Amino acid sequence: MQITLDTKALGAIETEALVTYAFEDGEPQGRLSELDQAAGGLLTRLIKSGEVSGKALEMTLLHAPAGLKAARLLVVGAGKREAFNGATLRKLAGAALRYLKARSVHGFVFAVRENGATEEAAQALAEGLVTADFETDKYKTEKKNDRFVDKVAIAGYGDAEKAAGEKGISRGQIIGEAQNFTRDLVNEPSNKLTPRILADKAEAMAKTAGLTVEVLDEKKIADLKMGALLSVAQGSVEPPRMIVITYTPANLKPNSPVVGLVGKAVTFDTGGISIKPADGMEKMKYDMAGGATMIGAMRALAALKPAVKVICVVPATENMPGGKAQKPGDIQTAMSGKTIEVLNTDAEGRLILADAVHYAKQLGATHLVDAATLTGAIVVALANVNVGVFGNDQPWTDKLLASAKAAGEKMWQLPMDDEYREFIKGSFADIQNIGSGKGGGSITGAWFIREFAGDTPWIHLDIAGTAWNDDAKAWLAKGPTGVSLRTLVHLVTSL
Ligand code: BES
Ligand code: ZN
Ligand code: ZN
Predict the structure, then answer these.
(1) Does the active-site annotation cover 276?
(2) Catalytic member of 276, 405, 410, 473
C-alpha cells in the first residue's frame, strides 16, 4: 500500500473517497466546517438531524457529495474531542480502511482535522492503515480479489508540515509492516511453522534487513547445557532452536545500554503430559507470539537504526506429550545451574525463557524485556484489554509504560512483592515451575523468570490475553494482533 501526502484543499481533492472524522460536539468546526461549506451545508444538516452524531466509529457514507470533487465522503465518528489522541486516530484510520475495502474502494484520502497535522499523527495514521489492511486469508483458495486498497493519501498537511508528515508516514509504515510480519508468523498453524521453520524465517528476515543472526540447533543447545529448554523440547520429534538476532548501531557509544529482547516461541503448546483439554487447543499455535513479536521488532529496528545495541533471543520449541516427554515431578537443571522441579509440564514457557534470559545476559544484555503468552491467569486478571507488565526495576518499567502510552498500547503493571516468591520455592529442587495453589498465577510465572534475570533490569510482558483477537475489530482482522511490538520499538528508539 502506497501512503502519500495530498496538500490540496479538501474540496478540490479528486478521489474515490474522502474520509474525515466528526467529534461529538455539535456544529461542524474547523476543517469540518470547511468541508461543510464546500458541500453547501450538508454536514450541518446531517449533524442537526442526528444522522452524524460523532459517536466513536460511527460510519456515514455519502455518495457524490455536491460541491466536492470526491466521489464519496465518509465521516467517521471520533467520540469526544477531549479524549481524542493518537490511539483514536490509529483506530479511525484503520476502521475507515476496512469499511471502504469491504466496499471495493481501492484508494482514498484521509483528512486530518485542524491542529492535527503532526509527525505523530502521520505515524499513527500509517500504522493504523497498514495494520488494518492485514488479512488472514493466506490459506483460502478463493480470495476476494476486488477487495484491496493500494493507495491512500493523507490531507490536511500544508507546506510547513510536509516534512513532519512524510517522516511520520515512513516511520509508521516501517512499524506497521513489522507488526504485520509478526502477525503473519503468529497466524501460521503449527504444521507450517515448526521451530526449524521459524528459525529459517527469522534468519531470512535478518539477512534481508542487514542484521546479524545465529541459530543454535539442538546439539549446540545441549552443549550450552540449556536444560530447561531441552526438557520442554524432549517430548517432540521436532528439534528446538535458539534464535539470536543482533542489531549493532554504526557508531556504538561506550557504556550505552544493551537491550535484550527475549520472546517465548512455543510453536504449539499441547500442555505436554499435563495435557490441555481438546476444546480450544487449536489456539495454542499462537503460543509463539512473544518470539514473533521480538523478531518483528528487530525488523523495524533494523530500518529505524536506533543508537543502542539490541540482542533478540528467541527459544523455539513444541510442547508435546511424546514418549520421551518430561513428566510431572521431573527435576531439570537450567543453563544458569539452578534446579527446577517441573510440577506441571504445561508451565513450559517459563522454562524455555529461563535459559533464554540467562543466555541474553551472557551475550551482554544489560536491560531485558521478555514477551510471552505465559498464563491463562492474565486473561482472568486483565481480559483481552491490557498486557500484563511485571518488572524488577521501577525506572526501567516506567520507561516501558511511557512507551506503551506513546504507542497507543494498553499495558498494566502488576505487583511483584517478595511474598509471591515464596509460592515457587521448591520442595526437592531450587524452584518449582508452578505456584503452590494460592492464586496469583501470572505473578508466580513472572517471578519464575525473574529468578533468572537476577539483578539485571528486566520486564516481563504477559501477552496471553492480548496477542490474539477472538473477534474482528472494526480496525483489525480477527486473529493475531502483534501487540507490544510498537511499545518495544518506541522504547528502544527512545533510549
Ligand atoms: N501457553 C499457555 C498460556 C496461555 C493460556 C496462553 C491461554 C494463551 C491463552 C501456558 O504455557 C500455560 O499453559 N500456562 C498454564 C500455567 C499453569 C499450568 C501454571 C496456564 O496458564 O494454565
Ligand atoms: Zn503451557
Ligand atoms: Zn505455553
Answers:
(1) yes
(2) 276
